[in-house]
Amino acid sequence: MAVWREWWAEAQTGSRQAADPSSAAPTACPYLGLASYTVTDRDRFFGRERSIEEAVSALQGATTSGMFVLYAASGTGKSSLLHAGIAGRAATHGLTWGSTKPWSIETVDPGPDPFGALTRIFPGIREAESSDDYRTVLDDYLADTENDALLLIVDQFEQVLTAGAHDATRDEFIDRLDRLSRVVSSTSTIRVVIGVRADFVPECLQHAPLADALQHRQIVLAPMSSEELAEAIKLPAAAVNAELEPGLSERIISDLDATRVGHNQSVLPLMSHVLESMWMHRDQAGNLTLRAYEAAGGIEGSVNRAAENAWKVLDDDDRAVAPALLLRLVQIGDGARDTRRAVPRAELLRVGGADARNGRVIEALTTARLLTVDDAGLVTFAHEVVIDSWIRLHNMISANRASNMLRQTFERDAAEWDRRGRQSADLWAGDRLHDVIAQLDDHPLTPMAYSFRRDAIKKQERRKLQKRGAVSAIAAFVAVLMVVSVFAFRASARSDVLASSAQFREVLSTADRLQQSNPSLSAQLVLAARNMQPAETSRVLATQDAPMATPAVGHENAIYTAAYRPDGKVLATASGDHTTRLWDVSNPQAPTPIGSPLEGHTSFVTAAAWSPDGAMLATASGDGTVRLWDVRNPLSPEAIGSPLQSAGGTVYVVSFSPDGRTLAAPNDDGTTGLWDVSNPEAASLLTPPLAGPAGPVRTSAFSPDGKLLAVGSDDKTVWLWNVSDPSNPVIATAPLTGFARAAHSVAFSPNGQLLAAGSDDRTARVWNIGNPAQPTLEGPPLTGHTGALWSIAFGPDSQTLATASWDGTARLWNLRDPSRPRSLGQPLAGSNGGMITVAFAPDGATMATGSQDGVLRMWNRPTSVIDAHTDRVMTPRFSSDGSHMATGSVDGTLQVWDTSDPDHPIARGRVVVPNGQIDNLQISPDGRTVLTTGGNDRAVLLWDASDPDTIRPLGRLELETRYAYLMAITPDGRTLVTGSSDNSLQFWDITDISAPAPLGQPLPVPGDLLTNAAFSPDGRTLAIAASGTNDITLLDSSDPSRPKMLQPLTGHTKQAESVVFSPDGKTLASAGDDQTIRFWDVAKPSEAQGIGDPLIGQSSTIRSVAFATDGRTLASGSDEGTVQLWDTTNIAAPIKLGGSIASIGATRWYIAFSPTSNHLAAGGEGGAVRLWNLTQRAAETRVCKNTNNVLTDATWDQLFPELPYRTTC
User: Of 62, 341, 605, 1007, which sits most exposed with the smallest number of CB within 10 A?
Assistant: First the structure.
C-alpha cells in the first residue's frame, strides 16, 4: 500500500507532475458506479482501512461462537466492506491470529430462495441435525479446498426479513445458518458474517440467533469521514494516472454532506455513480473537472439523469411494459422503507406475455448499470439508491402503492401455492379475491399469478354451485358475474377518484420533500396541488414563512460575486465564464440583463465592486488583473485605462474605500494591493502590497468610516489594518484567530461596530470592533452550514447577517444581541450546487445570491417573519383598533409595532425592562399603555406608549406573587386583574392608569399557580387556568370589587394552559396539557356546560388558543411547533382546516388574532415572531410574484413524468 500512500500525499499537496495527455487518458474507469466492490477489487478499495481493521479485530477476537452482524445505514458501503474489505483481507492474509494463511470465501445472496442458495454451497446442510452433522458439513466443504478456514458472507440480509419471505422458510434459514456458525473444530474454522441495513435491526431482534449476534458479536459501520471520502475520490484516479481539478473533491464532499444532512443518507453509491459518470465527461487529458461533475448531474442528479437517459432509449411499446417490470424489482414496504428484490430473469420476461419488449427493457437498464443480472439469472437494482433517486420510479411506486402492495402479496402467495403443490386450501377467496378482481384487472401479472387467480375464481364458483344445486347454481353464477361487473364498475369509478387523490398526494408529497431544499419550487407545487383540490388552504398559507426566489439565467458558469449599485437598481455579477453582467433589478421579481456582458478578462472573474457614487465598477480575475469600468451608462459600459496588474497571481476580491479614492485588491501570494483610483485613467499603487498573512488572501472589506481594512486568509486568520492614511497603512491589532480553515469572507456592519467573518470550516464569527486595537469576540461561532462559507454580508440595519455556503444555502442570523446570535427563519435554498455569494439590497427587503449553477436568484424575504427579539416571545397583543402590536420576550425587551398595514409591520419604540424578563404583557384597548410582568419582580410594570416611538415608564404595581404571570384587562380598559399571591386574584381600577387602585380584597381561587386569564367581551365574566387543577375557574366579575365564584368547568384530564372567549361571548375555548381543545357554552355563565367532543389534532401541549374577530375560526398553537386552524362556524362540530400553517417542530407558539384584520400573530422560542395573513389570495399572490420561471414544463416533466402539467399562477 506504500505506493497508494505516496499518491495520496501527492494528491493532497498537488505536487504530482501533470501526466502526458497521451498516457493520462486511460479507457478503464477506476470507479464502480452503483456496483459494490468485490473481493477482486480489494486493491482499489480506498478510504476504509480503519473500518477494515476494526472488523477484522472483532472477528479475530470473538470469545463466543455464532454469527456476526455487520449493520450500517443504507449507502454507507456495507457490501463493499464485506467483500473488498473483510473478504479481501481473509482471501490474502486470513483472519487467524498469528497466521497469514488465506481463508476460503463464500457468499450467500439470499434472493427469493435464501435456503436454496445455502444448500447450493453446502448440499448436506438440509439433512443436518446434530452439531456433529454441521461439523461434517463444514469439513466436507473444506476438503475440496486447500484451506482449513471459511468466511461465509450473507449480504443484503434484509431480503430475508422482508414480507416477501414466508415465516417458516425464513426461520429455517436463520436456524441452520446459526448452527453452522457455531461449529467448533480443532481442524477447521468458520466465521459467518451477515450484512444488514440498520433500519432492519428491529426485525433482527425478533429472531433469537440474530438478537444474540447483535448483543455479543456486532460490527457497526459508521459513515466515512471527510478525509476518508477524499481518499475514495482521489486515489482511484491517481491509480490510473488521472488528476482532479483543484477544489473538485472538496465540492463533492460538501455536496455529500448537504445530501446526508437532508433526506438522502445513501451518499456513497451516489458519489460512486457520479464519479463513474464524470469519467465519461473527463477532459482531453483524461482528468476530472468541475465541468464534468456538473455534466454528470452532481451528487443528487446523476442517478436520475442516467436512468432518464436509459428511459429515452426505450420506444413507446417498451415504456408501456417497463413499469410492470420495475415494480416487481421493488419490495414495497408497508410502513417500512421500500427495498430492492431479486427476480429471475425468466419470470420477468413472462410478465404480461411481452417477452421481447421485457427483454429490451432489462437490457437497456442493465447497459445503464441500473440493473444487474447475476450468473443465476437473478435481476435486481444495482443499489437501493436507484429506488430513492430515480424520480420516475419513485412516482410509479407512490401513485399506486396500495394496488402494488396487493399485487406483490398476491404474486408471492401464488408462488407459494405452486411450491406447496397447488393445494386448494391456499387459494384466495371472499373479499381478498374481490379486491384482486377489482384492483388488479389492468395490472400485468406473472403467469403463476394468473393461474392462481383463475383457480381461485373457479373454486369460489364451485362452492356456490354446490350449495344451491344445479339450477340455483346457474343463477348464482350469473349473480356472481353481475356482482363482479357492478363491483368492477364501481371500483372503476372509485379508481378515478383514487387516481386523482393519489396524484394530489404525490404532488403534495414532493412539495413537502422540497420544502427545505427548494422552497420556491415547493411553493409552486403547493399551488399546483391547490388547483387539484381547492379545499387545501393551509399549505398555501404555510408558504408565507418561506423565502422565495426568482431565477435569472445568463452566465454559463458559476457566479462568484453579486454586488448592488448603491441605489439598489442595478446589480453586477462576476462569473467563471470570464464575464461580468449588469442587471436591472429595479423590479426584483423581474431581473433583466442590461446590454452585453463586460468582457476582457482571460480567466474566471472573481469579483465586482461598485464605487460609492455608482459611476465606476471594478472587476477582478484569475488572470491576475483588476479592470475598471465607466458604468454611468449601464447600457454601454466602457473600460477605463489599462488593467491593473497584480504581481501576486489571482485577485480574489476588490473593494472600494467609502470615499471611492482607494481600491483594495487581495492576491494569491498573501498580499493586498492598495490602489489610488482617484484618477482611474492612471491608477497606481499607493504603497508596496500589504504583507502578513501566510496564505492567499481571499477577502477584504473597508469599514464604513474608511479607517480600517479587514482581510481574510487561507492561514485561518483575519487581519485588521489601519488605513486612515492609505499611503501609510499600519497593522491595527494582532490577527484574529479561531477558525480551523481558511477565512474566506469578511464584512463590516453598516454602523461600524461589528466585523463578521466566514470560514471554510463551515462557521462564522463576529467581533466587536468598537475599539479596533482590542477586538472582542461576540458570542459563540455561528454554526449550521454543512459546507464552506464563501460569502458574508450585513443587512442595512446592522442587526441581520447573511452567510452563503457550499452546502447550497444562505442563512440569515439575528444579531440584535451579538452575544446571543440566533438563526432567523428558513435558509435560502434551491441552487444546484454551492451558493457562493450573497448580498442585501440597500433597503434590506430583497437579497441576491449567485451559485455554482450560474443562476442569479433574487430573494423575497418573508414579511411574516419578524426580527424582534433573541429569546422566547410570549403572546403578542394588539390595540383594539389593530393599529399597534406589542411583543415582549424573556430577553427583557419590549417592542411596539405599527401594524396599520399588518403585511408590513414597522418597528417603533423599544425598551429593555429593568427586571430583565417579560413573561406576560397586555396592551390597553386604546394602545396608549403597555403592562408587563416577568421574572421574580413581583410587580406589574406600566409603560406609556402614547408616543409609540418613545416608550416611557409610568410606574410599578406591587404584588405579593412569587411569579407575576397572571394579567388581563377588560375590553373597556377600565379594570385590570392580576395575581395577588400565586393562588389568589386582585382586581384593579385603572381608569387612571397612572394611579391604579385595588378593588375589593384578594380572592383565593383553586390551583397552585394562576397562569392564564381572559375576560368575556362584556367584561362581566372571567375565566382562569391554573396549575395544580384540571378545572377552569369561572368568576362573575360584573362587580369587580365583589367577584363571585361560579361553578368550575370540568373535563380536561390535565391542567389547562389557555382560555379565550368567542367574540360574541357565548362560547369559551380552553386547551392545555391533555392535548385537547374544549368548548363551553357560557351564554349563561352560571349554567355553563361543555359543547360536543373535545378537539384532538395536535400531539403535544396546546399553549394558546385564539378566536378570529368573526368567531368563525379558531387557532391553536402547540409545543410541537404546529399552529392549527379550525372552522368553528358550527361550534358543536368544528372542522380541522388542513395541516399546520407553521413548520412542525420549529418552536412552541403563543398566538393572537388581530382584532381588525385577518392576521394571526405568534410568538415563539429563540425570538421568533410571525404575523400571518390568513387570506389565501395574499399568499398565492406572493408565491406567483416571487417565483417566476421556477416551475417550468421541463421541471414538471422531470418530477412527474406521468402526470399532465398543472398550471399554478
Answer: 62
- The CA distance from 362 to 360, in Å, is 6
Contact 546, 862 (CB under 8 A): yes
pTM of the model: 0.62
pLDDT level of residue 434 (50, 70, 90 thresholds): confident
User: Helices then strands (H, E): number in the chain?
Assistant: 27, 67
**In the sheet that 730-731 helps form, which strands lie side by side, from edge to edge?**
697-702, 708-713, 718-722, 730-731
Q: Is residue 1182 part of a domain?
A: no
Domain at 157, CATH number: 3.40.50.300
Q: Are both 952 and 1081 inside the same structural domain?
A: yes
Q: Which of 28-42, 77-91, 425-439, 775-789 has the lowest mean pLDDT?
A: 425-439
Q: How far apart are CA 1009 and CA 69, in angstroms?
A: 54
Strand partners, 575: 559
- What does the pLDDT read at residue 1130? 95
> Considering 800, 835, 861, which residue would you say is the last residue of a domain?
861
Residue 360 has pLDDT above 90, yes or no: no
Sign of dihedral through CA atoms 518, 521, 526, 532?
A: negative
Q: What is the percent of the chain with per-residue pLDDT over 90, rounded to a whole number?
A: 47
Grid look-up 397552585 returns 1008
pLDDT of residue 439: 66
Residue 1138 has pLDDT above 50, yes or no: yes
* Whole-number Å distance between alpha carbons of 906 and 944: 19
Euclidean distance between CA atoms 263 and 512, whole angstroms: 11
Alpha helices in 61-157 (DSSP H): 78-80, 88-93, 114-121, 131-143
| Domain region containing 473 | 300-514
105 lies in some domain: yes
Residues 433, 427: Cα–Cα separation, whole Å? 9
Domain boundary among 176, 201, 223: 223
Mean pLDDT of 1163-1186: 91
3-state SS, residue 49: helix
Q: What is the pLDDT of residue 385?
A: 74
Clarify whether residues 461 and 554 are in a common domain: no
**Whole-number CA gyration radius for the chain:** 35
In a domain, 1209, yes or no: no
What DSSP character marks residue 200? G
Instruction: Report the distance separating Cα 776 and Cα 773, nearest Å.
Output: 10
Q: What is the CATH number of the domain that holds 1000?
A: 2.130.10.10
Helix (H), strand (E), coil (C) string for 961-1028: CCCCCCEEECCCCCEEEEECCCCEEEEEECCCCCCCEEEEEEEECCCCEEEEEEECCCCCEEEEEEEC
795-to-438, 606, 745, 896 alpha-carbon distances in Å: 61, 22, 15, 21
Number of other residues whose CB lies within 10 A of the CB of residue 887: 27
**Same-domain status, 954 and 1050:** yes
**Nine cell digits for residue 1014:** 381572559
- When pLDDT is averaged across residues 1057-1072 and rounded to a whole number, the result is 97
The per-residue pLDDT for 314 is 87
Q: Are residues 745 and 874 in the same domain?
A: no
**What is the count of structural domains for the chain?**
4
What mean pLDDT do residues 131-158 have?
88
DSSP one-letter string for 1165-1206: GGGEEEEEE--HHHHHHHHHHH-TTSS-HHHHHHH-TTS---
The answer on 890 and 847 residing in a single domain is no
- State the DSSP string of 744-764: EEEEE-TTSSEEEEEETTS-E
Q: What is the pLDDT confidence band of residue 495, given thresholds at 50, 70 and 90? A: very low
Whether residues 856 and 883 share a domain: the answer is no
What is the CA angle 363-77-121, rounded to 5? 70
Residue 1192 has pLDDT above 50, yes or no: yes
